[in-house]
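2024-03-11 09:14:02 INFO receiving multi-entity request
2024-03-11 09:14:02 INFO entity count = two
2024-03-11 09:14:03 INFO echoing inputs for audit
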Amino acid sequence: MAPTLGKRKRITREELERASRSPSPSSDSGAEDLQAIFRRAFEAKFKPLPAEPKKPKPEVAPAEESEEDGDSDWSGISDTENDVEVIEYKDSRHERDEHERAEMKAFMSSKPPTSAAATPKNVTIKKKPDEAELTETANLQNDLALQKLLRESHLLSAASSKSSKSILEATGIARHKSTDLHLQSLGAKASVFTQKKMPMAQRKHMVLKARLTEEKRRSEAKEAGIVLETAKKSAKVERERKREREVGGPSIGRFKGGTLSLSRKDVRSITAGGGKGKGKKGKR
Amino acid sequence: MAADESLQAPLNFTGHRHLITRLLLATLSGRPVRISQIRSSSTNPGLTRHETNFIRLLDAVTNGSQIQFSMTGTTLVYRPGLITGSAEGLGASGGVIRHEIPGECRKKGVSWWLVPLCVLAPFSKGNMNVVFHGEGCVTSSTLAGDVSADTVRTAILPLYKNFGIERNIELRILKRSCAPAGGKGAGGEVQLVFNHQVRLPKTLHLLNPGRVKKIRGVAYCVEVPKTNNERMIFEARGILNKFVPDTFIFADASPAPLIPITVKGHPSGKVKGAVGFGMSLVAESSTGCIYSADVCSPPDGGVPADEIGKQCAYQLLEKISQAGCVESVAAPTVLMLMAMGSEDVGRVALGKDVLASEEIIQLARDSKVFGGSGWGFREAGGDNDRGEIVVSVVGRGVGNVGRKIVHIKASSQTEVYDE
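2024-03-11 09:21:47 INFO inference complete, emitting structure
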């Protein structure tokens, strides 16, 4: 190491800082190391090689000190021996990320870890909405608002007819009714205002009346050329189906002593089920 | 029915070995057992403290069990009752059984109690919710060969999924503790919640071990610097990363649990439990098979953390090299659940080293004595033969007696309703 250190001393700081060593005048000593010769030959033919990174100052300084030592083998106590060796038990490339946190949650919870929970979730990156999409969403929202307004128009008109000025926001009972309509459009089975228990005749009349009112409103609107909300399809009336009667079902036969005995009537009720009009009229 | 059982002649066994598996098989099959000559030639004859403590636990989770000891404790007669779990009024308060492990049992890890209890839990009539606490409750692995509570949670409980038992199972490590040295106490606390009871466990067919795809682990330290965790993780990762890049080992540092003492004149009335550190690693294969390794610092210390991490990683590699779908720690659990399953042939591939242990072979013999059918063995063969043996176990088809009664009751009610 000592001879190479001696060589390095001849290169001054300016030379070190220069971009390339190629234009540096070759020393006449002829003791250039082989690498420098090769380097110069290479750089003469091709482009200059990138310069070696500049050495930090503290490393250069001890080299210059050793100049005074001359040819003695002992190169002094190096400063590095006093340094305390520090070992980091941390993986430098191992960063705590979202995935690891999810893994930790899955593994360190009190539940036994499942392999399914550990599958990495693919991260969805939110795209920035562009102009076209913005207008599209705005249109859709407006459309929805318009539909709602149309749906509730009869409530609003009824409310506004009472008061002098027209209103666009439903209030009071009208608001409750509009909420109810909204719920029904979202899939509620029945209106919250329907009375659950009442005499059948009364209910029938109510349904009839509601239908007639609705028809009247629609026909009037049509005559006046007013666009109404689209009519909701009324649920199909369930045809009263004959009950399926078969062996094993309730009220078929008589089960006694581990055997099911069928009476003549039971057999007839099963076999004659399909035929229509064969039996006597008015008799079940 | 109870009268019939009391008339049933007990099965006779001798010796203290395999006491726990015999008691488990007795409880699950409902057959009374008589175990004699328990350490009869030893200078310290009879049952040890941890064995009597386990019998206490059995008594707490069952209803109607009868336990008789001889004067010296060398003979035990056990007539099992119904596994009721932590039913109210039978030793449980607020739906939780608090089971104390006294200081004399500190040589055994808490997994010694946990693993058998987990086998009983699916066959319980009600929910199982047990808190283990006390001076002898060691959550880390021990020199006696018991695994840590972490390994029970991450390597044994997931196996119940294969039997269709997977909902509402939790193992909470409330206070960590290490194996104590000298006369110290451990003072850990673990809660097992096992609320998925079944009529019959599903028949298991586990023949393809697959290839290890991920490794997870926990490095824990109690009352010692966290750097121990980092050093263990660093070493273990250094070894395992070459084989499986998907390796995550998490660190958990906790203070030592405080144990109340009754010594007069002590300022706080509490002392700190044992300290130490350890590591639990779990490797999962592509087909869901699990291998685990567990190393803990010895109670007297003197082993650096790096060494523990290295040992644990090598232990895991050794377990994986033993091949088979079930490792040695979990094999008794799996085989016992298979034997208690439906009357159908279940198959599992085991490594030769796992199968050829004294514990497993005695389990096979005992389960035959308890009325099960013999197990079948054959070479696995196939393309990638790693010297595995396929064990075929026919279930008893009895399953959960408590659930059966409930089931019949329900069905009879519906019949009445139909008529």
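2024-03-11 09:21:48 INFO post-check: The interface with chain B takes residues 89-91, 100, 103-104, 107-108, 110-115, 118, 250, 255 of chain A (CB under 8 Å).
2024-03-11 09:21:48 INFO post-check: The beta strands of chain A are 254-256, 259-261.
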